[in-house]
Amino acid sequence: MNADPRDDRLLAGSLVLRPWLPGDLGVLLDAYRDPAIRAGSRAPVADEAAGAAWLRTQEEGRASGLRYGFAVVDPGLGDGPVGNVALSFPAPGSPSAEVGYWTAAPARGRGLAPRALQALSDWAFSRFAGDGLVRLELLHQVGNEASCRVAEKAGYAFTELLPPCPPWPDEGHRHTRAA
């Protein structure tokens, strides 16, 4: 690992998790054309301006130390990202953080999401143990059974049913993983 977590790149078998780059804009726009990704996103990307803002947000999150988004690259599918995993802290030194992910439609069903989420989780607990990180949470809408499977495969146990909370109109699930 690098001295600075902003520069970290992770490996999960053949997958490479790396920081998002300005050149990833086209792939990002293609991914967000998928209704499933838009439905699960807190910050949908509808056009180039929104995509550029999303990429800047990833860079700013790394610079602040509060958000680490990784483009998931599967060399077997090409050089560009086919997914995203992210770690978000509510505040510096927080004992818990939230993880999230998405997988582009052409890459689904290949086990990428659980492998990438597992790698992100292992990295987070290793990288931020000294800062007191002891718990990771994954939240999703109750009807998203695929996210339940991904969470379980990556070691996240179902913890509780959550009430609807804007922008989410339905109940949700909280899955957690301890260090």
Report strand %: 25-35%
Q: Strand count, sense and closure of the main sheet?
A: 8 strands, mixed
Distance between the termini: 19 Å
Q: Tell me, rounded to a whole number, the average pLDDT.
A: 92
The level of helicity is 25-40%
Q: What would you call the structural class?
A: alpha+beta
Low-confidence stretches: none
Number of strands: 8
Secondary-structure element order, as H and E?
EEHHHEEEHEHEE
Strand order across the largest sheet: 1-2-3-4-5-6-8-7
Shape: globular
What is the count of DSSP helices, taking H or I runs of 4+ residues? 5
Computed CA radius of gyration, to the nearest angstrom: 15 Å
Question: What's the short version?
Answer:
The chain has 179 residues and is α+β, with helices and mostly antiparallel strands. The protein has helices at residues 25-31, 35-39, 48-64, 112-127, 145-153, and strands at 10-12, 15-19, 67-73, 81-88, 96-103, 135-141, 157-162, 172-178.
Can you walk me through this structure?
With 179 residues, the protein is α+β, with helices and mostly antiparallel strands. Helix content is 30%, strand content 28%. It has 5 helices and 8 strands, in the order ββαααβββαβαββ. It has an 8-stranded mixed beta sheet, sandwiched between helices. A hairpin with a 2-residue loop joins strand 1 (10-12) and strand 2. Helix 4 (112-127) packs across helix 5. The longest helix has 17 residues, at 48-64. The protein starts with 9 loop residues before the first strand and ends with a strand. The mean pLDDT is 92.
